Amino acid sequence: MEPVQALRQIAFRLERAGEPTYRVQAFRRAAQVVDGLAPDELADRIRTGSLRQLPGIGETTAQVITQAASGQQPDYLTRLLGEGAPAPLTGMRAALRGDCHTHSDWSDGGSPPGEMAEAARELGHEWIALTDHSPRLTVANGLTAERLVAQLDLIAELNAGLAPFRILSGIEVDILEDGSLDQSEELLGQLDMVVASVHSKLRMPSGPMTERMVAAIRNPHTDVLGHCTGRLLVGRGRGRPESAFDPEAVFTACRDNNVAVEINCRPERQDPPDALLELAVKIGCTFAIDTDAHAPGQLDWLGSGCVRAEQHGITPDRVINTATALAVGGQHPSG
Fold first, then answer.
1. Residues 41, 129: one domain?
2. What is the pLDDT of residue 79?
3. Residue 61 within a domain
């Protein structure tokens, strides 16, 4: 195992376990530093014990680098590998080919698109949709139209080197108060995956919120309704309660407009709640089981959503990310 690979594997497992961000970033920063060194310099620093003179390299990361460079599996990684049981490989999990909802450091994620893609490929994914935030979500560094166009160029460049794995172009677009989507129709029409989510005015009365969500669902560019209730199970105080809306009207609109209801796998979301998920199943919706990953290690959170889907009798043919990249990206004429 190469030192950079070892450092990134440790960061991945720490992310997956929900460890503090500062701890994860320490290993990712160290990986970047080592990746930028000439092989001779790395060997010299290991020989002379001067690794810690480099910015971003501490005692623990230096030990990991030294052990990996000598051909050992680092002790730190060995310990992580022995902790915790992996999520069960259910039939649904085995059927998933990709993830419709992921973020990179172009908005509020922690890693570049290429690193997210490489981690997904190592997990056995065939594709991921890169769905960074839209411009009005400034707190999440949402992408302006110009930045989104630049990201499309980057995706094309990355895909040339990742094939047959594919990054699908996409966006998590804000549903505005009037139900319109926070990006130009022209740009939305160029994307493979549009996840529409409510991020503002979450305490609107049920009637206006229902109208708002249904209008967004009826937009011909919308593919997935993201984390529909907006709830947070943890956070300041007691988290955040569910938004009020008419779920029958919203899920019926999803069914009638071929918009998938997202089963969001983030531990603090687990959205929709079981009662609403059961209703969406009865109404006849399709689904997207998504991690909403903001870091590579979070891409392995799919298991909880798969378990929930199977508990509610959802079969793989009703989940859009069991399809190939071509089938998913082909929903739009330009996909």
1. no
2. 87
3. yes
In this model, does residue 184 exceed pLDDT 90?
Answer: yes
- How do beta strands 193-197 and 287-290 pair? unpaired
- C-alpha span between 229 and 241 (Å, rounded): 8
DSSP per-residue string spanning 171-215? EEEEB-TTS-BSS-HHHHTT-SEEEEE--S-TT--HHHHHHHHHH
pTM of structure: 0.83
- Does 157 share its domain with 303? yes
Residue 177 sits in a domain whose CATH number is 3.20.20.140
Question: What backbone torsions phi and psi does residue 121 show, to the nearest 5 degrees?
Answer: -65, -40
Q: For the chain, how big is the Rg over CA atoms in Å?
A: 21
Weakest mean pLDDT among 79-88, 170-179, 260-269, 278-287: 79-88
Residue partners of 292: CB distance under 8 A and separation at least 6: 101, 102, 103, 226, 227, 264, 265, 266, 269, 298
Can you give the pLDDT at residue 88? Answer: 61
Domain range for 177 is 91-329
* Torsion over CA: 134, 138, 139, 143 (sign): positive
Q: Please state the domain count of the chain.
A: 2
Per-residue pLDDT of 241-271, as tens digits, reads: 999 999 999 999 999 999 999 999 999 999 9
Three-state DSSP class for 253?
helix
Check: CB of residue 215 under 8 Å from CB of residue 178: yes
Let me know whether 60 and 98 are in one domain: no
Tokens 């998938």 — which residue?
260
